[in-house]
Amino acid sequence: MKVPMSWLREYVEVGASTEEIADRLVISTCEVERIARVGVADDDGNLGLFRVGLVVQAGKHPNADRLQLCRVDVGEGEPRQIVCGAWNFGEGATVAVALPGAVLPDGQRLEEVKLRGESSSGMILSERELELGTDHTGILVLDGGHEPGTPLADVLPLAEEILEVETTPNRPDLLSIYGLAREVAAIFGGELRPLPGTDPERSGDEAVDIRIEDLERCPRYVGRLFRDVKIGPSPPWLRARLTAAGMRPISNVVDATNYVMLAVGSPLHAFDHTRLDEGRIVVRRATLNEEIKTLDGQVRTLTAEDLVIADASRPVAIAGVMGGEDSEVTDETSEVLLEAANFEPSGIQRTSERLGLRSEASGRWEKGIDPYLAAQAATLCSELFVDLAGARWVGESDVHGELPESPAIRLRPERASALIGLEVPADEQRRILQSLGFETSDGLEVRVPTWRLRDVTREIDLVEEVARMKLEEVPFTLPQRQEMYGRLSPEQRLRRDVEDALLGAGFSEAYTPSLVADDPRPDALRIPQPQSQDMAVLRTTLLPSLFEASRYNQSVGNSGVALFEIAHVYLAAEGLPDERVHVGGVTEGPFGRAKGAVETILRALGIDAAFERAEHELLHPGKTASLGVGIVGEVRPGLLEGTWSAFELDLAALAGAAPALRAYEDVITYPALRQDLAFAVDEGVAAGDLAAAAREAAGAELRSMTPFDVYRGEQVGEGRKSIAFRVEFRSPERTLTDEEAAGIRERIVGALRDRFGAELRA
Amino acid sequence: MDAEALASEALGAVGDASTSDQLDDVRVRYLGRKSELKQALREVRDRETGMALNAARVRIEEAVADRQAELERAELDRALSEEQIDITLPGEGHHRGHLHLISQVRREVEDIFLGMGYEVVEGREVETTRYLFDALNMPATHPTRSPLNTFYLDDEIVLRSETSPAQIHTMEQRQPPIYMVSLGRCYRRDTADPTHYPIFHQVEGLAVDTDITLADLKGTLQHLLRSLFGEDRETRLGTHFFPFTEPSVEAYVSCFLCDGSGCRVCKQSGWIEIGGAGIVDPNVLEFVGYDPEQVSGFAFGWGLERIAMFRHGLPDLRALWQNDLRLLEQF
């Protein structure tokens, strides 16, 4: 909401600057987006160069048909000669003048000039040139009451500061200048003036026919009837205020309703009374498929959920959202029915959402406006109708059900202090609440003002009122702990270990979206209404996303790509999906690159794992292994350019496989005996199978058997290969003798010969 | 013979030797089999002379050994200095990967809270509306419940739009005191732009104990913000509104670029908005079976991307999802 500060200051007496006000509002009330400055710059006496002028002489420019040559009294004794391009005024008009040297809002500096041979020492201004409005069809003509030479700033808000605030949905009372003025008064201890508006004299007692059929959706409807209304433009001050607040001036009657909405926060509507069938207002539900053409020219089809304002025969407005075109106030209107009503928020919200139709009014109603405000809004608007449009107020009807009562809430001041963590004396708490419109007794009972009824219902809500006024004074403390334990769980530590292992192995961490276009598993969970088709499925594997990230890096020319990610995957299950945390990795290079990374992780965690041949649809069928906790393999050719390998492991499975703690093993006292053994075997025999069989035959004293070379060639023969192992024999109890080692070796050689036809090579 | 004079003459000669060869000559001259000293030693008759001669011998031997080490060292240095290489050439191998910026912030935040005695709680990303909305005191009309804002899998199952359900699960599982943070992915139907992406990361914090105050929240957030943005930073709270906290606040940190004097990053205000926080609403405490008269709590929920972007001057958070090594390797 845009808050012209000159308007706000009309409601509250406060010495603080606009910056100070903005600063404190942010702390106690609402966000302030920015302070905008519009109009004439107020520096170097610039403002003083803008004056009220009286046109004492006006006529055609001798050398130009389109220009007027004027003599304008700006309070200097001698009138100035000014050339002007507008014709909407003549002798005797009171106008706004900028003198030479003045800087206009658009930055232009006026100079004494000659126009078509005539000197012009100043400029007669339009409202657009002053940023007071958008009208530039003619110059701005002022009321006659001002002396020539009066500073223009005394007559018009020439230099305006506008606070742009963003209020929270619980505070519809802040969607008004007066509501914000109340906060400013409470914050700075300034004096808040009474709500604006005094009923004008009523010149008639005509009946106003108002009927509410749905008191729940429309708890109140004040209808006031005006005759002899003269529609015309609003005066400059009103146009300036609406413009500054971000609304477009239309006509005096419409502007008055908008002005009152902005001033006090309760939206209003004006009907052309003669266009209402039987002059009647009926607040009712629409019938199914009932139609109305709204002010924006669109035909809207309604449902029985929608509340309408109808006359005797048809809807004339969608209640609280937008008026109908048929009954709108036009230049010919002379009888106006003013609606100052109250509508229930959720109904307005549903209708406005269904129709995709939002207005300044609906935005307020759907947050819940105080029904008591309607009467004051009607009063202020009536005053403006009479003042601005010469209207006569001739009748009123105020229909309402039972209006909500202010409940009394018990506030324990010591409770408030305890929750805030700052001792706020009871007297001060009472004073704060009173400044915000709460009524307090000497005891603990607090009565909530009607404009806060929806928001303040409990003691804690009162505590917030006190707290927000004291936020800057609240000290910085830490909880007075009774117990203290801060630690990562074993799984969380494991996650960091995995991250660190992969970083050490040269992998960088990627973040890829968990929502993907498609997933290898047909039962992957789909979002029924995805935001886009490439974010439609909850992934069950990280690999495709990592491939995509690799492809991207390749496409931009990055080399040495190795990426990993740790993220949730989602497996379909009864009820909520089974969410698992996976670590996936992809790297340039063959099978061994990815397997090496996996082994790095396993070593970091102290896990022994066996690799078994496996299949995976994204991986090479001959170069893929499973290891219980996940899978590793070469990326299936065609998915990425070049040779890549990848892995995906389950973190919970890794945690399950990792030893809780690693016990000390003495590997120093009794040194190991090392030998190299090479076996010739058929091509299909796996090194891992040989090692497993050897371990079984040799017993615990075979400490390790690691393949280090594979050889194929004439010496081993067609279809055979030689695998060389480094073996290590060691006993934890004594130093093994050469004879003992030879015995173990015999057992290994024998077992491998028997099971795999393996020949020991010299 | 005068042992003392001999010794000082020998020491002088040792000092003068400037190569190993010269030193060797000196050694032979004063300590060799035919040297004056050795001969005198052989001929010595009385104990006193013997002791003096021996002492001289030891002094000379030590001096020779010391000088020998000195000369060898100098000769080695001379030789090595001729093996000069270009030390500006880059090192080899040992390429270490880079943790994603968000993970770095995540670890940092975890460690800050571990240091304050908090535990780190893991949460589900797919949640029920009960834990995402009902438990958090969100009225039926709250816009977050709209399928226009939150991803629904069915009427009751949603992708969490904030990490707060982890609070509820933790509170349901046990009694106070509770001091926890939870970090992870969240999902909202936001159109991707420089400051939004449908997937983002939050840190959620919760403290529930017998006498938690708004001041405790203020102090805790100040510690967090100073740890993240520097010890000179100031913290300020502004009034806000959330269904699950009352009072609700928005936390601001003094701008670390302009130090509060106003710049483009802080929109001339001197303060940068970081995220929401507040005192846990009694309705939330009651939902999990706590008595709001007995315990109170504070909570906060902030975006990790926002912290990372401000701190590192990242103009567009979509870059965090691009996984370009040129970006990843900057952090």
Explain this structure.
- The complex is a heterodimer of chains A (762) and B (331).
- Chain A has 762 residues and is an alpha+beta fold.
- Chain A is built from 17 helices and 40 strands.
- Chain A has a seven-stranded mixed sheet with strand order 28-31-32-36-35-34-33.
- In chain A, a hairpin with an 8-residue loop joins strand 38 and strand 39.
- Chain A is elongated.
- The relative contact order of chain A is 0.07.
- In chain B, 40% of the residues lie in helices and 20% in strands.
- The model of chain B has no long low-confidence stretch (mean pLDDT 92).
- Chains A and B meet through helix 2, strand 3, helix 6, helix 9 and helix 11 of A and helix 5, strand 1, strand 2, strand 4 and strand 5 of B.
Features:
heterodimer; A: 762 residues; alpha+beta; 7-stranded mixed beta sheet; 6-stranded antiparallel beta sheet; 40 strands; 26% helix; elongated; B: 331 residues; two-stranded antiparallel ribbon; 11 helices; 9 strands; 20% strand
The residue-averaged pLDDT of chain A reads 94
**Morphology of chain B:** elongated
Q: Could you tell me the radius of gyration of chain A in angstroms?
A: 42 Å
Radius of gyration of chain B, taken over Cα atoms and rounded to an integer in Å: 38 Å
**H/E series of chain B, N to C?**
HHHHHEEHEHEEHEEEHEHH
Class from helix and strand fractions of chain B: alpha+beta
Q: How many strand segments of chain B?
A: 9
Largest sheet of chain A, order of strands side by side?
28-31-32-36-35-34-33
Based on the structure, what is the oligomeric state of the protein chains?
Answer: heterodimer
How many strands appear in the DSSP assignment of chain A?
Answer: 40
Helix content of chain B: 25-40%
Structural class of chain A: alpha+beta
Main sheet attributes: strand count, strand direction, barrel closure of chain B: 7 strands, mixed
What share of the residues of chain B does DSSP label as strand, in percent? 15-25%
Uncertain residue ranges of chain A: none
- Terminal CA distance of chain A reads 91 Å
**Largest sheet: spatial strand order of chain B:** 1-4-5-9-8-7-6
Number of helices of chain A: 17
Described by the principal axes of the CA atoms, the overall outline of chain A is elongated
